[in-house]
Design a protein that fits this description.
By secondary structure, the chain is mainly α. The chain is about 40% helix and about 5% strand. The protein has helices spanning about 1-10, 130-150, 150-160, 165-175, 190-200, 210-220, 240-250, 255-260, 260-270, 290-300, 305-310, 315-320, 335-350, 360-365, 385-395, 400-415, 440-450, 460-475, 500-515, 545-560; strands at about 15, 20, 35, 55, 490, 495, 540, 545. It has a two-stranded antiparallel sheet. Strands 3-4 form a two-stranded antiparallel sheet. It is globular. InterPro entries: FTB (IPR026872), PGGT1B-like (IPR045089), Prenyltrans (IPR001330), Terpenoid_cyclase/PrenylTrfase (IPR008930).
């Protein structure tokens, strides 16, 4: 499921440098892969051409280039080469070009562990992460090369979202999972959410019997003292509570919504509240931003969020923002895309987004979109399809926070010049904004956010992200004789799974609607890559539930 998939549901490298793109780590290039005019942008707002112009250079067979000996160079001693196999992978020795990738295609040979490769005075040693990055770029380049060389009709087919195949894959999973899924026994509400939510994004309606089965199953997961466990009889946990509530809201029937015991749920959340202001995932469990988001999201969605639950959460999340601009799971840890979304979304629901350094956060998230056109979760990590939502939604949220961002930038400028008291029309001590002391109506914040229009265009390349999802997260093929498989994946070379199907489609929806200025209108055709039939249902980006389902739940719980 990837590191964030595992972290999110847990119940118990190179690519972007500041202001420039590198392909294999600092100050290194891959001579066999020349991706031109990619992300040549001076700041977080992406410009330039992301539909990469690809060309091959060097020896396509992966041979090490012959270096001309210098007159003053001492003769090199013969080095022992490993018996058999290919020469070690270096920036000048790359995997040969292969056809369009599929999930069953073997990875390009690397010639052994790069860390054990003989040293070369001409070439720096490659780390394992750099080698893996080169492999990913090679696979992605092969896919994009086919697209750019295809006829217009073929391009339209390649960029099509395979709705029927995805619906079949997800519906089958709801009815039957193989024995290999026993390892996810403590995460069964997550499995429900990862299938029900993307089916709703695809505008697929579940039959009544299947909906009733899901509601009955989740009712058995609900603890008598509040919250939902990973399965019937298991201890309640904030992560599976989030998954269960989101699933029930997505089903949206009165029977599903009324099955949530809100009184006991509120008591459970109070027990998870820590004196630091943050939340624990379960009794005696870990404290992190993920727990705070799942608690605040669920409480807001079912209208039980109050001052007692909200107290101290914003300050804890603000302490988790790192020097890079992203948000870590806990103070002094590494910035991560999943935690960044969780922290920002929680603070918006609390009406405390100004506690974050938003310009710095935007800068960090924007530079996580790499040469593959998808997002990475952390600095110097590989691209991963699930971050299409975690990172894409995080930066899309900021498009509705421009007033706060402008205020922070002006405040930063003013506070750098304390001697010029008239620069802000006030003294330098007045540069920090104060929140109103009036009573807080938490129930309004999630709803009001949907009524706001985007105050600026996309702060990431939304078309490039759609390209990655459609071409690299779907299992692509060039042969019409092969059967197209449903389900989406992390990256080329990986297998499909329900987790990535959920968050790739969620990210696709975010990217399709991110260019809209009017919140009531539909995206224009130029904002939807491929045929317009690719357009998914819009989501509420703070909760990641389909927008119509959110409005139904909001109306239902407002009457309670």
């Amino acid at each position: 499921l990837g590191e964030w998939g595992g972290a999110l549901m847990r119940c118990g490298a190179g690519g972007i440098q500041s202001g420039r793109v590198t392909l294999a780590g600092p100050a290194q290039r891959v001579p066999w892969l020349d991706i031109r005019r990619i992300a040549t942008f001076p700041g977080p707002r992406l410009h330039g051409t992301w539909f990469a112009s690809l060309s091959l250079g060097g020896d396509p067979r992966g041979r090490r280039p012959q270096h001309t000996a210098s007159r003053n160079r001492r003769p090199q001693q013969a080095r022992a080469q490993p018996s058999g196999g290919d020469p070690p992978l270096t920036p000048a020795s790359a995997p040969a070009a292969v056809p369009m990738d599929s999930s069953t295609q073997p990875a390009p040979a690397t010639g052994g562990d790069p860390a054990e490769a003989p040293a070369d005075p001409e070439l720096p040693r490659l780390t394992v992460t750099q080698v893996e990055q080169m492999k990913v770029e090679a696979r992605v380049a092969d896919i994009y090369r086919v697209l750019f060389g295809a006829a217009p009709n073929t391009k339209s087919i390649m960029l099509e979202l395979w709705r029927d195949q995805h619906i079949e894959y997800l519906t089958h999973g709801l009815r039957h999972l193989g024995p290999a899924f026993h390892v996810l026994d403590a995460n069964r509400p997550w499995l429900c959410y990862w299938m029900v939510h993307p089916l709703t994004l695809l505008d697929e309606v579940l039959d009544d019997d299947l909906e009733d089965d899901i509601v009955d199953f989740l009712a058995r997961c609900q603890d008598k003292d509040g919250g939902y466990g990973g399965g019937p009889g298991q201890l309640p946990h904030l992560a599976t509570t989030y998954a269960a509530v989101n699933t029930l809201v997505t089903i949206g029937s009165e029977r599903a919504l009324s099955s949530i015991n809100r009184d006991n749920l509120y008591k459970f959340m109070l027990r998870m509240k820590d004196e630091s202001g943050a939340f624990r995932m379960h009794d005696g469990g870990e404290i992190d931003v993920r727990a705070s988001y799942t608690a605040i999201s669920v409480a807001s969605l079912v209208n039980i969020l109050d001052v007692e639950l909200a107290k101290g959460v914003g300050d804890f999340i603000a302490r988790c923002q790192t020097y890079e601009g992203g948000i870590a799971g806990e103070p002094y840890a590494e910035a991560h895309g999943g935690y960044t979304f969780c922290g920002l979304a929680a603070l918006i629901l609390l009406n405390e987004a100004e506690k974050l350094d938003l310009p710095s956060l935007i800068d960090w998230v924007a530079f996580r979109q790499g040469v593959e056109c998808g997002f990475q979760g952390r600095t110097n990590k590989l691209v991963d399809g699930c971050y299409s939502f975690w990172q894409g939604a995080a930066i899309a949220l900021t498009q509705k926070l421009v007033m706060i961002i402008d205020g922070q930038l002006k405040s930063l400028y003013c506070c750098k010049k304390p001697s010029e008291e008239d620069a802000c029309g006030t003294s330098s001590s007045g540069c920090t904004s104060e929140k109103s002391s009036s009573a807080v109506d938490y129930a309004k914040f999630g709803f009001d956010f949907t009524q706001r229009s985007n105050q600026v265009g996309p702060l990431f390349h939304n078309i490039a992200l759609q390209q990655y999802i459609l071409l690299c997260a779907q299992i692509t093929t060039t042969s019409v004789k092969q059967v197209l498989e449903g389900g989406l994946r992390d990256k080329p070379g990986k297998n499909r799974d329900h987790y990535h199907s959920c968050y790739c489609l969620s990210g696709l929806s975010v990217s399709q609607y991110s260019a809209m200025i009017d919140s009531e209108s539909c995206p224009l055709p130029q904002h939807v890559l491929g045929p317009y039939s690719n357009l998914l249902e819009p989501i509420h980006p703070l909760y990641n539930v389909v927008l119509d389902k959110y409005h139904t739940a909001h109306e239902f719980f407002s009457k309670e």
